[in-house]
Automatic annotation (TrEMBL), chains A, B:
Belongs to the CinA family. This is CinA-like protein. It comes from Chryseobacterium jejuense. It comes from the Bacteria. Residues 25-193 form the MoaB/Mog domain. Signal peptide: none annotated.
């Protein structure tokens, strides 16, 4: 674990005064998120990493890069949590005012830190930029009461400050810089310094039952959960994820407690459970395919590569995913996937029959046990064949058996449509494999 | 435009008291985001839709589903903005307390609304669920001082309330339900009722110049921007997007003003500008390919379908994207893309030579002007050929010319790696096409 650089004026004795670290508040600074230009993925990553070490994010503020707003929000955040993490607002450009706000809030001054400056110089030199501009040098100015965690993938360092026995970390906003700072430096640091509570959580994936009926079915079970456990409903497409979370100081006891409760839950909804434990449907699929030594391939039209991407986003997927084809143009479906021209002429390209032939051709091309195909119109605008947008046929072929289904989702935006259909296809496949 | 249902006790005269609508605050309610389980995409969508009609999101709160927290946040939000939009916390399950908090905050009561109940009944019946549970019926209970916008894609209606001449809308949290409510109902409603300011914004995409040098280069230009205009730096991979935003009451004047400023900016950075106006790199590519009538295909290994997905996420991409191949297994690269076994044996599968042969084979298979190929190891875990993770070779082939490049990004997580590489490949292609 890389060691942070402790600035000489840092009040080093404060750790003895902090006995717990349970609640975190995140502050996202800058115009990118507020303007709708960028989706905030940092908060998601940080919240999930903190959860793993037993720290719960209780609130997230997304604010503009203005000194007064930053100071007011810091003050509110320190009231709500033991740990405050800010991201953004540390770039070298004019619209970043975070460091000034930090100094004012902590009643501190900004000074050039030689260690940080040398780190920065090395970072720039390795990138062939020996001429450090004044603007870059500014990045090595930090509050004098901070502990500095060097940034190995960018120019803005992470600064840790302390207030009344609570901690704040200020990070840059670029996700590629945030992730290693959190994962390799901040998390290990918190684990080393504090006795943290454990949080254990498991996910039960349920399909084929509406959320309201599900809630009625398991109401008595939910009401009987003890104080330290909670249940959340997380709908994803047509699947509902039930997340059971427990917190406490004994990891083994928590695991046992959660397992006991899940064993009581399963009989209540047994026909609808497709997986326990794994969260994402592509991970559930990975478990099944790996265990059964099955291979898979994809032939996509309207999902445009998203289906292959979902499957390959799982580490180790090269063991079962042999390949995929995005056959966008009709001629390519005919040439490469061996779809017959007569079938296209007779039934149009968005049809049950073409989906079936695509799956068959795909299975032969890649020589896999399973093949998946999609053909449809993601929209907007009518498809070339005159069918309405939002229609998709998909075939799941397992060895010599196949199931073809149709979806009609005209209200979805293009990318949502591609995501939704891919989710649904993999979910159906998981359902089929489990029932086999 | 669908008309909302006005509840009898709604104080209908308040519109005459509202003269402006400029600042919005978003509140995201529920555990999904805070726990790191779900990325908040609703805020992004809503902020961007509001920006189009001249309303600026000034702050976003993400809070837990607790009555006091919701009430306190509503109160803070009404101080910061003229318009408050909440999402989430309206599901039929136990963890949703938003409606109760709304009633308490607005000093109102919840009552069954017959119109909403009938809408709900119709919605359930169309889905073949004639037996409405008590729990579903609860969805038709709304505050008596609200205006109800019916939800056509889910069971929780949207409720509009008024406080001291400011408005709040409470929506469910499911993105598929949020989008049509915002786009088809709330935005047209706001446009009809208020005289809104226009916001005009344009993006200049810049590559090959670090953010700090860019900032120095255009500093004088930026300082000379008038009050109603602002500049933001939005880094995406190795590209920097400069967003120039102007607001005012005359749309035409704003457009002219922005255009004038951009014409003064371009000569300062001319060698680095790859596009003006379009935001996403795949849209920039779409413009160029459509204009020049060029077709494109992809052969992917480590990007696993993301490259094809990025290209096909643009509406109208079927005009130029003929198809893609995800050749994950080495044997499939040989069999389908015609990569020679000798090349693989001599240079390994992650090599410049294999990238080149993949691009060539892909161009022939799909018969396109342009082909793109990627071969690398996304990790984690060493690649089968022994090369370190994070290495990728990619070839861009335009007619009979080709460029092959290498990237080494070992610090990126798997999905980030796939995204980053795909962004970079398309960005390089755009650069090459522009310089031709």
């Amino acid at each position: 674990m890389p060691q942070p650089h402790i600035f000489p004026s840092f009040a080093g004795e404060f750790f003895s005064r902090i006995s717990y670290m349970e609640k975190a508040v995140l502050i996202t600074i800058g115009d990118e998120i507020l303007s709708g230009n960028t989706v905030d993925t940092n908060s998601n990553f940080i919240a999930s990493e903190l959860k793993n070490i037993g720290i719960k994010v209780v609130q997230i503020f997304t604010i503009s890069d203005e000194i007064d707003t930053i100071k007011n929000t810091l003050s509110e955040a320190f009231q709500l949590g033991d740990l405050v993490i800010t991201t953004g607002g540390l770039g070298p450009t004019r619209d970043d005012k975070t460091k000034k706000a930090l100094a004012e809030f902590f009643n501190d001054e900004i000074a050039l830190d030689e260690v940080t400056f040398n780190h920065l110089k090395g970072y720039m030199e390795r990138r062939g930029r020996a001429d450090i501009l004044e603007r870059n040098k500014e990045q090595a100015f930090v509050p004098t009461k901070s502990i500095v965690f060097q940034n190995h993938f960018g120019t803005a360092p992470c600064m840790m400050m302390e207030l009344d026995g609570k901690l704040s970390y200020s990070l840059p906003g670029v996700p590629y810089e945030v992730k290693p700072l959190i994962k390799d430096q901040i998390i290990p640091y918190l684990q080393e310094k504090f006795n943290l509570n454990y949080i254990h959580s498991r996910i039960v994936s349920v399909v084929g039952i509406p959320e309201s009926i599900l809630a009625d079915t398991i109401e008595d079970w939910e009401l009987a959960l003890p104080e330290n456990m909670s249940l959340s409903y997380l709908p994803v497409g047509t699947r509902v994820k039930l997340r059971i979370t427990a917190s406490g100081d004994n990891e083994e006891a928590l695991k046992q407690q959660t397992e006991d409760k899940i064993q009581k839950l399963l009989p209540l909804i047994k026909d609808h459970v497709i997986a326990v434990s794994e969260d994402k449907i592509e991970n559930i699929l990975a478990e099944i395919l790996t265990e059964r030594k099955l291979t898979i391939s994809t032939a996509e039209s309207c999902t445009g590569g998203e289906l292959a991407k979902m499957i390959t986003s799982v580490s180790g997927s090269s063991k079962y995913f042999l390949g995929g084809m995005v056959a966008y143009a009709t001629e390519k479906k005919i040439k490469i996937l061996n779809v017959s021209r007569e079938t296209v002429d007779q039934f149009t390209v968005v049809s049950e029959q073409v989906a079936q032939e695509m799956a068959k051709g795909c299975q032969e091309l890649f020589d896999t046990h399973i093949s998946l195909s999609t053909t449809g119109v993601a929209g907007p605008g009518k498809g070339e064949d005159g069918k309405d947008i939002g229609t998709v046929f998909y075939t799941i072929r397992i060895k010599d058996q196949e199931v073809t289904s149709k979806l009609y989702m005209p209200h979805l935006e293009r990318v949502d449509f591609m995501d939704f259909v891919s989710q649904k296809v993999i979910q159906d496949l998981v359902g089929l494999l489990i029932s086999q």
